[in-house]
Design brief:
Retrotrans_gag_dom, Retrotransposon gag domain-containing protein, two-stranded antiparallel sheet, 61% helix, 10 helices
Amino acid sequence: MDTRGKTNAEFRAEITETLGQHDANFDELNHNFNRVNDALQGVMAELQAMRIAHSHRSSEREVNPFVGGSTSHDRSSATFNADKNHTTVKLNFPTYSGEGEDPTGWIFKAEQYFEFQNIDAPRQVQLASFHLSSVALQWYRWYTKSKGQLRWKEFVSALLHRFGPTEYDDLSEALSRLKQTTTMNAYQEAFEKLSHKVDDLPENFLVRCFIAGLKDEIRLDVRVKQPKTLSESISVAHLIEERNQFQRKFNNPVRPATTPSF
């Protein structure tokens, strides 16, 4: 904002107008959340219908080696007919070596593959084991000698304890201790990275942890707005951070450079 040549009153008027626009944005944000949620529900319903239709088009897809009745020998990828023009897409199953890699990303990709290719639960660990290498494969061979055949959830739990970050043992506690020290963008990135490593955390728990970790100058105003979801909490916090930046500019206006007298 250029403050040169403006009176104090003009500058205050501009700041007041800007802050008023931000307050209006809060109300509009609350109104839009329900509309966005309804739209997402409609998209999810359409995707579910498409998935059901696709599962019945067995004559138009290549049979996967881990679905009953398969004759294909390619276990690392699968192709399918994406539309009536027979466009093919090749999906590669991700590999994991365990050498300094965070396994949470690999687990997420593997579960996406299972869902998309309709891999039966009893075959999921078997398929995943074919794509372990190096240290991870060595650990898997040792672990299954004593534990026997594993279910997917058991495998994931053991893999995370072996190769996951040290805070995995109590991620919910680590999440509640997380604090904002710099910008909202940096805090949001750290919060999302940590929360994605554990499933089934209640929405209200995530909201409480997120708000509790905010800087004092942001946290109190976010609580006043009483956001109900994590996405709403994040949006409100960003708006408050931006408003605070405007207020700081108002309290410390840029003074025009003075010409030295001789």
